[in-house]
TrEMBL record:
Belongs to the alanine racemase family. It is an enzyme of class 5 (isomerase). The active site is at residues 39, 261. It comes from the Bacteria. This is Alanine racemase. SUPFAM superfamilies: Alanine racemase C-terminal domain-like (SSF50621), PLP-binding barrel (SSF51419). It catalyses: L-alanine = D-alanine. It holds the Pfam family Ala_racemase_C. Its cofactor is pyridoxal 5'-phosphate. The lineage of its organism: Bacteria, Bacillati, Actinomycetota, Actinomycetes, Pseudonocardiales. Keywords: Isomerase, Pyridoxal phosphate. Its EC number is 5.1.1.1. The modification N6-(pyridoxal phosphate)lysine is found at residue 39. Residues 240-368 form the Alanine racemase C-terminal domain. It comes from Amycolatopsis heterodermiae.
Length: 372
């Protein structure tokens, strides 16, 4: 690697892996449309390139959290159906309606704010959300009939769908899944009785993989399209993100010398150290100090001492790497390198958090595969 091609830290995004994952998920849901979820800058992978790859792979919808995310995609030329589901009350719904973005309503008040923003002679495309047991966003069952009636009577609104979100789909067999499915079915019956004919969408990545009975009309794969499996079963999903850096300095220290802040690690023998210019400002959690490996010189090597803001130290033993040699902090795991899931397990979190946190000013993003 030459200096011009070696940023201090870089994430590579394999767009072909994303296409592969969506094709696999689409094959699992032959009777449903696929809404590729690209919220939070596509889980840290880059919303626009991922959105384009997802559409090429057959997604007929794109899902965002905020209206701003959806409008950014529209302005960039994305014409695919967009759905935005959570914003502050002061959001300008009119901009979304004019851009053809589908909106979510979880209350009569929210429905009325959307209707009030509709330009004359048009309609807002709305998805009514029922809270089936996550107790987060969504209309409580006690208020559902009122919301449905209000939507059915509102000429400025076209009710496209009803939807909800599962709390424990990543725990196959959890009793809440069937309980939520039952409430969702009841909510659909209420909507139909009010004269509506909405689509239904409930299945996230885990339900796409484990509950074909809940696929309905549209499925919403998120983490699985990025190659990270939310359920403990074998799938041919390919992680799309690799986090890499390069060796900036090599030095040999004698036994008894200590490393980094606090001298938490002391060499038991003479050894070579590699300095890697990536630290917690670049997405390497400080809490992984002394608990992580990197892939360097064809094998795993331990990070020793504390991870610093801008750098970390790798113990290479008698192996002497070269300045500029590639260091993989996490990747797909196909060569034996650490993975985002491994980081998450050590930190007591989920791999969603690891990859989503990789959008940082000092971390360069590079795209691989067709269309990169």
């Amino acid at each position: 690697m030459t200096p011009s091609s070696s940023p201090r830290a870089q994430v590579d995004i394999d767009l072909d892996a994303i296409r592969h994952n969506l094709a696999l998920l689409g094959a699992r849901t032959p009777g449903a449309e696929v809404m590729a979820v690209v919220k939070a800058d596509a889980y840290g992978h880059g919303a626009l390139p991922v959105a384009r790859a997802a559409v090429e792979a057959g997604a007929s919808w794109l899902g965002t959290c905020s209206l701003g995310e959806a409008l950014d995609l529209r302005r960039a030329g994305i014409t695919t159906r967009l759905f935005s589901w959570l914003d502050v009350p002061e959001v300008d719904f009119a901009a979304g309606i004019e851009a053809g973005v589908d909106l979510a309503a979880s209350s009569v008040g929210e429905l009325r704010r959307i209707a009030a923003a509709v330009p004359a002679g048009t309609q807002a495309r709305v998805h009514l959300k029922i809270d089936t047991g996550l107790s987060r966003n969504g209309c409580p069952p006690a208020g559902w009939a009122e919301l449905v009636s209000a939507a059915a009577a509102e000429p400025r609104v076209d009710v496209v769908a009803i939807w909800s979100h599962l709390a424990c789909a990543d725990e196959p067999g959890h009793p809440s899944i069937d309980a939520q499915a039952k409430r969702f079915a009841e909510a659909y019956d209420v909507a139909r009785a009010a004269g509506l004919d909405p689509k239904r969408h409930l299945a996230n990545s885990a339900a796409v993989l484990t509950r074909p009975d809940l696929h309905f009309d549209v499925v919403r794969p998120g983490i699985a399209m990025y190659g990270l499996n939310p359920v403990p079963q074998a799938e041919d999903l390919r992680p799309a993100m690799t986090f890499r850096s390069a060796v900036a300095l090599v030095k040999r220290i004698e036994a008894g010398e200590s490393v980094s802040y606090g001298h938490t690690w002391t060499a038991s023998h003479d050894t070579n150290l590699a300095l890697v210019p990536a630290g917690y400002a670049d997405g390497v959690p400080r809490s992984l100090s002394g608990r992580m490996d990197v892939w360097l010189g064809g094998q795993r090597r331990p990070v020793v001492g504390r991870v610093c803001m801008d750098q970390l130290i790798v113990d290479c033993g008698d192996f002497e790497p070269g300045v500029g040699d590639e260091v993989v902090l996490f990747g797909p795991g196909t060569k034996g390198e650490p993975t985002a899931r491994e980081w998450a397990d050590k930190l007591g979190t989920i791999d969603y958090e690891i990859v989503t946190s990789m959008y940082r000013p000092r971390v360069r993003r590079r795209y691989l595969g067709a269309g990169s």
